[in-house]
Specification:
single chain; mainly alpha; Growth Hormone, Chain: A; 14 helices
């Protein structure tokens, strides 16, 4: 019955199990963490916001060198080590009693999470054939959403109890989930580390890859749907519509279930970079339509607002799934096979940038401009989606040029060696 929701046996299924275990703990953590630090520790929302922003800023930068470490030392061992480190940092929240301690813990947590994500992506790239990576990644995303939903239910129980002990049990649960995920990852075959390249090549070559940097920037714009769903829509529903407050939860459930049920099906439409670029372009169009529908939810009766919000959320999650499927293929396919860790760490910065800058940008744009703000955001999605195709073609051309240059240099080296051997005789 559940076989269609499971990836192929072997490495994909083990990766999905590790993802599920970690997501259950994260789901409980996300529901409870902010309220714990405000109600129990006594931090202000401003302090929490500053610490989390700083933490994710540092974490996004550190994801690149930690991904490079996975390339050079082997992604399985580094991923397992970073999962353990993440468990330790989550456990450190149990001892946070002041703002400075929270800042340090938040920075360490975000760094470990970012590095763990990059190493895990490199592990997937090393164990799964290129033509199956996007589909496998879709299974992992579906699994993660299911785990987050289960974890959120546990977190809801802790919120209902409301005691310090209940909150701390959630942190222990999340910490234990990362330890369990590390053990599961160690069941996978080892991926050989990429050999170091002689000749003084720069270690972090992704930092000099301008086409890939442009694609990452465009993806960051597209990823603004994340704070749209988690921050802007709840405020919009409460402040600008007559819809009941429980619609916030309803839209989240709709989003989660849609990804669980349909993400793999959408991802199967990706067969290469051309189809991936097309899906991202379609995502831009659908996101524009979603923004236009959301703009219509104000100034209406309660049930009309409910219907409009559900329609907008349906379009939004469709755009999200189209974007994810295309972006995964692009992020993997344009990364050199021996540098997947650092490239995935860099590509993941788009998510972090959207999470950091998105809440302020989108609340200012939409809650002050209403319909015009929604349409401006939709146009931004549209432009980023359409610009991705040319950026991918630029990256492909740059790779072909680089490969040709390397082949020419290799041929010259062979010729010089042959001449040297002839002269020695």
């Amino acid at each position: 019955m559940f076989s269609k929701f499971l990836p192929a046996s072997g490495a994909p299924r083990v990766l999905a199990l590790a993802q599920l275990i970690g997501a259950v703990g994260d789901g409980a953590y996300y529901v409870c963490s902010v309220l714990y630090f405000t109600r129990i520790v006594g931090l202000s929302p401003t302090q929490i916001g500053f610490a989390l922003t700083l933490g994710w800023a540092v974490g996004s930068v550190m994801g690149v060198p930690l991904g490079h470490l996975a390339d050079r030392r082997g992604p399985r061992g580094v991923a397992a080590l970073l999962a353990v480190a993440t468990a330790v940092t989550v456990g450190s929240f149990l001892f946070v009693r002041s703002f400075p301690a929270f800042v340090v813990a938040a920075v360490l947590y975000a760094t470990c999470v970012s590095g763990f994500g990059a190493a895990r992506q490199a592990l997937l790239a090393g164990l799964v054939e290129p033509e199956r990576r996007t589909e496998t990644r879709a299974y992992l995303q579906s699994t993660a959403n299911a785990g987050l939903a289960v974890g959120a239910a546990f977190g809801g129980v802790a919120l209902h109890i409301g005691t310090s002990t209940a909150y701390l049990a959630v942190f222990l649960m999340d910490s234990a989930s990362f330890l369990a995920a590390a053990l599961v990852l160690l069941r996978l075959p080892a991926v050989p580390p990429a050999p170091a390249v002689a000749g003084g090549e720069a270690h972090l070559t992704v930092l000099r890859d301008r086409p890939y940097a442009l694609i990452t920037l465009l993806n960051a714009f597209m990823m603004l749907y994340m704070p749209l769903l988690s921050v802007v829509l709840p405020l919009w529903i409460v402040q600008r519509t007559t819809a009941p407050a429980w619609m916030v939860s309803a839209l989240l459930v709709l989003n989660t279930l849609s990804v669980v049920l349909f993400q793999v099906r959408v991802a199967r439409r990706v067969t290469g970079l051309a189809s991936a670029s097309r899906l991202v372009r379609h995502a831009g169009v659908v996101m524009l339509a979603a923004c236009a529908v959301f703009a219509l939810s104000t100034g209406t009766s309660t049930w009309v607002a409910v219907g409009v919000l559900l329609a907008g959320a349906g379009l939004q999650v469709l755009g999200e799934m189209l974007l994810a499927s295309g972006a995964w293929e692009i992020g993997f396919a344009l990364a050199p096979s021996d540098k997947q860790g650092q490239y995935q760490g860099f590509f993941g910065m788009g998510v972090t940038v959207a999470r950091m800058a998105g809440p302020l940008l989108l609340t200012t744009l939409i809650l002050t401009q209403d319909a015009r703000g929604w349409l401006a955001l939709g146009v931004l999605f549209l432009l980023a989606g359409f610009a991705t195709g040319p950026a991918v073609r630029w990256a492909e051309q740059a790779r072909l040029t680089s490969a040709g240059r390397e082949g020419l240099l290799a041929g010259q080296a062979i010729d010089e060696t042959a001449v040297g051997n002839a002269m020695s005789r």
